[in-house]
């Protein structure tokens, strides 16, 4: 019987590897269905301007609402999505949802006209030949002002295919779309990239913000990154701000923006408007 045959074949493979292969395949099939049925939701985390003390915008962070496993975080499925190419459909879906949502929030009467939305994009999407067409379509469909859209990319995106990426980033800039280098300081940072690519802001990785007040050596890095940003005409955003002490330090270093659990965890879309109207000043 087929079942017996299948069992017999197990002995040929390393059972550990076999289990892992099955698991990846399971996630892959699961993900395919999730994309078809749109099982994803977007959470939003506020970004605070340290000059005004007000909410300047939100970062869109995807979650997978799995029918049996519950809420799954991006770190647990984005890598598989990248491997299988499903990431493109997912990225486009997030972009569209976030832009549509921003348009709704901006129309609200209370101080929301200038809100921005930041969306994380993977390298794969940037290198799709129809990427700019997709972006234009989303802007057209959702009627957002392109200057309120911010795209977050990591250093690895740039490393992969720098000439092509440079052209695309330039075309995004012409559309007034903002570009943020995410997780700055991790990965294969090369400062020479910064003047080749037209970034509007550097987002200092939370690992540096986290250890900022531990000791003198760690303290040195955050001010250095903030002054690199300033000297190149880019804004500095600190991510992972969890304590008042970190916030005070960042303010005194003239960091422009901050986000983190101190202000709010990422929240589901239906709670955003309440958040905006109840907490407006830090
Ligand atoms: P990221 O863009 O660097 O996002 C920041 C992550 O830090 C988020 O995790 C956020 O929930 C978490 N975080 C925010 N504030 C704090 C804090 O104060 N303390 C700590 N410890 N963590 C904080 P999340 O939502 O699990 O996202 C993880 C990563 O997944 C993101 O890192 C981003 O690279 C990726 N990701 C999220 N959404 C998308 C998406 O729509 N598309 C793609 N391609 N990647 C995404
Ligand atoms: Mg990000
Ligand atoms: Mg980040
Ligand atoms: Mg990060």
UniProtKB/TrEMBL annotation:
Residues 24-280 form the EAL domain. Signal peptide: none annotated. It comes from the Bacteria. This is EAL domain-containing protein. It comes from Anabaena azotica FACHB-119. The chain holds residues 330 to 611 of 611 of the full protein.
């Amino acid at each position: 019987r087929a079942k017996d045959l299948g069992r017999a074949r197990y002995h040929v493979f390393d059972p550990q590897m076999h289990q892992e292969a099955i698991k990846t395949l399971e996630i892959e099939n699961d993900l395919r269905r999730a994309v078809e049925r749109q099982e994803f939701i977007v959470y939003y985390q506020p970004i605070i301007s340290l000059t005004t003390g007000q909410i300047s915008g939100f970062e869109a962070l995807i979650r997978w609402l799995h029918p049996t496993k519950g809420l799954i975080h991006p770190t647990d499925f984005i890598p598989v999505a990248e491997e299988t190419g499903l990431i493109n459909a997912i990225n486009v879906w997030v972009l569209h949802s976030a832009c549509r949502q921003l348009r709704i929030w901006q129309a609200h009467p209370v101080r929301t006209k200038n809100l921005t939305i930041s969306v994380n994009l993977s390298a794969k999407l940037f290198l799709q030949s129809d990427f700019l067409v997709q972006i234009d379509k989303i802007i057209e469909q959702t009627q957002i002002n392109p200057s309120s859209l911010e795209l977050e990319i990591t250093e690895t995106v740039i490393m992969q295919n720098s000439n092509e990426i440079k052209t695309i980033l330039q075309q995004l800039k012409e559309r007034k779309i903002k570009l943020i280098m995410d997780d700055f300081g991790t990965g294969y940072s090369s400062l020479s990239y910064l003047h080749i690519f037209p970034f509007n802001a550097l987002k200092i990785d939370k690992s540096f913000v986290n250890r900022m007040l531990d000791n003198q050596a760690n303290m040195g890095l955050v001010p250095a990154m903030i002054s690199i940003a300033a000297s190149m005409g880019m804004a500095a955003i600190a991510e992972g701000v969890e304590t008042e002490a970190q916030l005070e330090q960042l303010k005194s270093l003239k960091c422009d923006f901050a986000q983190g659990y101190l202000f709010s965890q990422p929240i589901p879309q239906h709670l955003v408007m309440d958040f905006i109207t109840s907490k407006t000043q830090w």
